[in-house]
Amino acid sequence: MTWPLLTLGVLSVAAATTAAGYCSVNTLPTNSSWMQFTKEPVPVEYGFEDKFKSIHCCVKGYRSIEWFKDGVSYPWSAGVSNLILYPEAANQTLYTQRAAHGDSGNYTCRMSNETHSETHTVRLDILEKPTSTPRTMFISKDQWVEEGADLRLYCEALVGRSYLADARSDLRWMRVWPNGTEGDLLPTQTEIKTTREDVEDIIGSYVRIERVSAQDYGMYACVVHSNDHVDRKYVTVHYKFNGLPSLTSWSNDSSIPWRPLVLGIIAGALLLVSLIMLHRRYTLRLLLAARQARARTATAAHRARVLEKEFDVLVCWTAVDGELVRGALLPTLGLKYKYRVHTLQLQTQPDNWYNEVMSQMARCRSVLTVLSPAQYSPQQLLTALRQLRALPHPPVVVLLQDLPKLKREAKEGGERLSDVVSHTRVVPWRHVHERAFWTQLRLELPLPPHQRHNAPHHIKTESTENKNSCSGSLTALV
């Protein structure tokens, strides 16, 4: 009686020792001391009743490992689980000599170090007898690998017992080609078969590739045969460029057409950017050119009505803005763009602007007012804009500075300043050489007569007197 018990004890210790060595073979290559898995974390395990069974949590860089079964922390009573820790495996292995159906459940290992904590859950199913159909337990996820790097894929399954003489039970990796056919691995792709000491029906296989090249990218199949049953699981190896995953696979077997999708997105984005740039650069110019083309085909009666007015534009400003108007605005409108320009200097206070402009407006086809918002309070600015908007032909307002961002806008007669501004034809000034400003301004003003008539003498004289000081006046505005 003593010898059988001793033999059983020796075999039990040997089985536990072998199971504990599971975490020391076929480990992942690691170059750091961080807490990390040293083998692929298998999410499903199988065992058989009254047989030896072990489960593992192979990690490194941890300070402690805690185990839980269905939320209950280790150690467990007989009614919860028969599995116990194998201390020689640094708490990474649980085992039992005689597994029972009650040992089935979710086993969670929680690894911790000084700063981090991670968990991994294994579903353990204790079966009554071996199965006749294969059950895949683990397959690597899709990989993104740089060219020249190393690659490792793993697949593991519970294969059924062979009951027929010509039946086979095995697991192997196959290469899936772009046309959908399967073939053997390339000579540079090494396959390594593995078995379990605790359950002989569990087999696995690694694919290892040193220095991945273009021919290694694509889809791989883990094919498990058991009697007449075949189970296939797939994993795709993608190209990763400069450390960043590429959305396009080197194979054409992806379920999503990433390559045309990405190329379409890039082309659409480039087209959108191009359209925005073309719009900002040419839309106003095209509108102005079309307007000028229509003007050249105008009837004689229309041209006669244009010439009924003595001037094309009445330019109004205050003393603060006189240098800019006389040095830049008037010469450009009169000499470059051939407008017949009349001028009016307004009082600084805007309370009587309506009457001042009305006295000269009858002689002009349009009104242009130059305004510096910075010299007025919100209430004065509202008054000025309302005075101008009340004119029979509301003027074009050139703002020399941006409107202030007011926390409390001025109100008068229920109107807000922002509402008045939104209903005013505003052209913001930027620089005398900014083509977009002049194009937008000319679109707001009526076109000058096609045949240039003699302009008022005082405009020409004013421009000539300021010719020497023009360069300094052009940049007087900040």
Automatic annotation (TrEMBL):
Gene3D superfamilies: Immunoglobulins, Toll/interleukin-1 receptor homology (TIR) domain. Counteracts the antiviral effects of host IFN-alpha/beta and key IFN-inducible proteins involved in viral RNA degradation suxh as host OAS1. Acts as a soluble IFN-alpha receptor and thus inhibits the interaction between host IFN-alpha and its receptor. Residues 1-20 form the signal peptide. This is Soluble interferon alpha/beta receptor OPG204. Residues 466-478 have a biased composition (Polar residues). Keywords: Disulfide bond, Early protein, Glycoprotein, Host-virus interaction, Immunoglobulin domain, Inhibition of host innate immune response by virus, Inhibition of host interferon signaling pathway by virus, Interferon antiviral system evasion, Membrane, Signal, Transmembrane, Transmembrane helix, Viral immunoevasion. Residues 29-125, 134-238 form the Ig-like domain. Residues 452-478 are annotated as: Disordered. Pfam families: I-set (PF07679). It comes from Loxostege sticticalis (Beet webworm moth). The chain crosses the membrane at residues 258-278. InterPro entries: Ig-like_dom, Ig-like_dom_sf, Ig-like_fold, Ig_I-set, Ig_sub, IL-1_rcpt_fam, Toll_tir_struct_dom_sf. Interacts with host IFNA1.
